[in-house]
Batch of 3 targets.
Target 1
Amino acid sequence: MSGYLRRLATTGAAYTAASILSKLIAVALLPLYTRYLTPADYGAAEVMFSAVVAVSIVIRLGVVEALLRFYYKQGEEPAAVVSTSFATLFWAGLVSVIVLMPFAGPISDLLLGESEPTLARIAIGGLFVLTLSEYLLTIFRLDERARAFFT
């Protein structure tokens, strides 16, 4: 039991430290953002990021949560669960990017009130990256690879 508690405390501390470090990096970069971005630019980037996060939740289709549930389920093959969930997220993300990319102009008009198709294209590409990075971080947690999660 003490081995389990030690492992739980160690991995929990690593995940907490990673979260704190990412927030500290964001705060450290704030002067850089404010120097090179106008408040309107920073606001536009934040609106796009919020939209990417919201759409990513829909695109993930609950696959990450299903992975967490079925990975340890009796009778399920963990490797099959991992590969199937990755394929699902990869294709869902890729199809979403392909479908959304031609609408970058209208998406930026809708979200920002002005045409910024380049920013929308960056956000759409980021949607694919965010979707797969959430999956990767989940795999690290499942394998208890806190050091990989941290870096």
Target 2
Amino acid sequence: MLVLEKKLDVLKRRLIYLSDIKGEIFGERIQTLENWLNNISERIYELSEEEVAEQLEKIATQISFYEKEAEQKLTPLDYVRIVRHPFRMTLKDILENVYDDYVELGGEEEYNIDPAVIAARATITRRIGKRVYTHQVMVIGHEKGHGEEFRNGGSAKPWGNEKALRFMQVAETEGIPIHTYIFTPGAYPIEDYPGAAQQIARNLYAMAGLRVPIISFISEGGSGGAEAIGLAD
């Protein structure tokens, strides 16, 4: 039954996500499925596992159908809602699920000098024939988090961009490639006296001359916040 409870929770989250993106189109249909899920949740220990599994499968099929329908009608505003949604994957999710191992540099969570920017030395392992090769990369990017206020929604401050540049230069010294991930609506709207524009310019100038490969992955790339780590090969 624990597996079914987890599946029930996943279906609820999928409905919330669909409602947040396309609620104006699927409002009544989503409400019907939500009521169905709530009814199952209230009676989950009264029904047999087979009955619960059968009903959840029907709901999952219906949600998948709505998701495919929504994908065909996405507007520019919908894309903005998607990249800014709290359920959207973050850089921490990518580090934990894509790379084989990683060590965060420059402080973690709220103890980071700028929690909106993450730098990590990550490991990628690949197999060619019978031989296994391990490569290190420097991963730098914006971290929106899943609603944590201290992340500032992935908006970097000048000292966050300075930290990004510092670890890019470390990667150049070590001769390892750089992966940058851009998840930002823009640089943090702070007064100009800390030198926000100047730091972005310093980053661009330095990145243009780095002697290691830079690959940039762009999700939401807004304004100078994206430019500060987005100059890539």
Target 3
Amino acid sequence: IDSAMTESERRDVFTRLRAREIKILYVSPERLVMPAFLDFVKSLGISSLAIDEAHCVSMWGHDFRPEYRQLGLLRDAFPGIPIGAYTATATERVRADVCTQLKLRDPLVLVGRFDRPNLVFRLEQRHNLLTQVRHVLDRHKGESGIIYCIRRSDVDDLCSQLNRSGYRTVPYHAGMEDSDRKRSQEAFVAEGVDIVVATVAFGMGIDKSNVRFVVHSGMPKSIEHYQQETGRAGRDGLGAECILFFAPGDYHTWKFILEKSENSQGLDIHLRKLSEVYSFCTSYRCRHRAISRYFGQNMDRPNCMACDVCLADLQPIAEPLVVAQKILSSVVRQGEAYGADYTTAVLTGAKDQRILQKGHDQLSTYGLLADMPKHEVRDLIEQLVSLGALARTEDHRVLRVTPKARLILKGEETPTLMRVAKKTPVRIAEEDASWQDVDRDLFEELRRWRLVQSAVRKVPAYVIFSDMTLRELARWKPVERPSLEQISGVGRKKTLEYGAGILNLIREYAQRHEIQVRAGWAGPGPPSARSSPRRRKRGR
């Protein structure tokens, strides 16, 4: 039951509920706690309750909603039935608060691994968003992806720019008509387009398994949001890439939005989370390890080999001590009264009117880093903040030196400062392995076949076959039904439904490319001769 239904549709649901024809009922928290509706639910004799997105119950959660807080009355209303609470993004503190607020009695708490080793995390300072995003899209031609933006206007602008550049994209945000949002979502799920450009409003209820990349065009407002949004990539277990383009100004953008929308208590919690994600963006530590630690878990692997830090997308700068001393000296000579943007302008020798008026073009540090791009200097300042050599005032606008900075200025401590390596980002070994021996041309033909089937049957493409199954088909090339049934993700039922079309496609492909067919296979041999696909167990 939801607000988009007509009155007659709602009446029909109530009639079917009274007739005991409905086994599972989905409702919003707002509706469930309405006294009249709650009394009606009590009369149905329900057997269990499941609360999704349970982090919304806790004021410490990243999406606290007051109406979720009222769900605590369910324990009293239904004292004898089990209650389950589910979320993918709850810290230890949030988990404990959820149990308390829902009045759960000695609950069984199951916590899975927060680490997603098949995801590659990359973070870059944003300096030319359109160019940076296009580089990502060109690495993932023809693949499904999501681009998240902070504001609705950013969605519309970026979507228009990408469409003009020849990419197949649709927008999605809360400012669109319901029908337009639905069209965008359906086009993306059915693979009528490759990319959806969206605000965080997109993704709830989406379980598209073959999203190969997620781009954030700006900093998310919490690590929980980042975990949830990047978690929409690679759900089929294959490799996927998550790229975050951020700028220091994102902190102030979010702060402005939060100050307009949150009460004082909620604001303090959200600003703390904002500082945590800002620190995550500006530090150069293993991304997988940082996320795992945030959620209270340790990572077993010493090197994730799946983030920009561990993949050596970054490299140490030359003469880090000298560069750090120049930056710190400039902050001191400016009287510790200015922020990072102003300090960057001084160090790069900008002809800024404010600099000239203050006479800071006469400082000995003016133009000392003029040979470096401005965004690199800005990034180095953020690294010194992350390392504890610089600190910000409470409003996040003014830089101050710390005792650690004094050690660096005296030459008694050398910081490690990094820059982006001048190379094309590599894909993780796990992702490369998933393509081993896969005939990519055949894979693309199978994808096109799947898209046609999706349109004919009016179901999402990934429901027909996952990308992983298509890769297995393009690897082993079965040409007979018994061979096809051995492929992971196929089995007898799908062989009966789709077998004729797939087998004809593979046979014709093998004939065109003069690939030898033997013993039911048009490839390197049956799966059992190499790394065999998993066989389905058949029940008696």
